[in-house]
Amino acid sequence: MVGARGTTEMQGTSMAYTPMAKKVLAAVPGGEIYDIKYSSSAEYVMTPKQGASSGLQYIKGQIAKCPKTVFVLMGYSKGAMVQTQILASKDLPPNKVVAAVLFGNPYYQGGLPQNKCAAKTGKGIAAAMMVRIPPQYVSIVFDCCLPMDMICQTMGQMMTHLTYGGKSASDAQAFVVSKLKAAISGGGGSSSGGPGGNKASVGTGDQSSAKTPGGLGGGGMGGMPGGGMGGKPSGGLGSMLGGMGGMPGGGMGSKLGGMGSKFGGM
């Protein structure tokens, strides 16, 4: 189970998905939790790309050691950007990811089939980046956004972004367990063809974050033009670092850096 934590969260844990992951492993023994090594600083252009590259290196390294290994991806907030970029990468080995859970995803788009929680409409603050889940992975993705989460809904409040526990986590746990059991029994994961009888386990490793995205697909964060965010008055996604579309509080960097240091989060 490969996790990507949110901004300012400590290496090795996330308040959004770590408790869920432990319950999944209790229900489906034989796996381990690995936290992608990347910077959880309040920077949202290069570090998600570096995290995706680091995660891809880890996944490919584990497959080289144990070809039957399958993976569950987990991402919270900024970490959801990392995992979405992994899924969108042409470098991701096929049929190895059997489930992916995204909490408070900045790339969130309402009305998509992978959306599993209470929010049904709206867009995340990075939706204009156009980083999308490839069709072959839609059926294995649990994209969870809560109403009034200002990160996956743009408008709202930070406190909602810090509450991905309870029913959201329980539903995600059940989703992942079902996908893992299907993989173990030969039911497969993604719609492009499952891993067959792959063993649902992940080895451990220590991969440092790469400096380049290594051929990430799906429109890497760094390659986007500096245009506007859907008409927001403060300019493009680059304004994440200084101001997010005229929102109060100084934009994404300040919104996430301030509360993130206390609670984790984006």
Written account of the structure:
- This protein starts with a strand and ends with a helix.
- It has one domain (2-226): Alpha/Beta hydrolase fold, catalytic domain (Rossmann fold).
- The protein is an alpha/beta fold.
- The protein is built from 6 helices and 5 strands; from the N terminus they run E-H-E-H-E-H-E-E-H-H-H.
- The protein has helices at 18-27, 46-65, 78-88, 158-161, 167-184, 251-263, and strands spanning 2-4, 34-35, 71-76, 97-103, 141-144.
- Keywords: Disulfide bond, Hydrolase.
- Residues 186-243 are annotated as: Disordered.
Please sum up the structure shown.
It contains six helices and five strands. The protein is of the alpha/beta class.
Spell out the key features of this protein.
carboxylic ester hydrolase activity; alpha/beta; disulfide bond; Cutinase/axe; single chain; Rossmann fold
Gap between N and C termini:
20 Å
CATH superfamily: Alpha/Beta hydrolase fold, catalytic domain
Structural class: alpha/beta
Strand content: 5-15%
Q: C-alpha Rg, in Å?
A: 17 Å
Q: Domains counted in the coordinates: how many?
A: 1
Order of helices and strands: EHEHEHEEHHH
The helix content, as a percent range, equals 25-40%
Largest sheet: 5 strands, parallel
Reading off the top of the CATH hierarchy, the class is best stated as Alpha Beta
Looking at the structure, what is the overall shape?
globular
- Under CATH, the topology is which? Rossmann fold
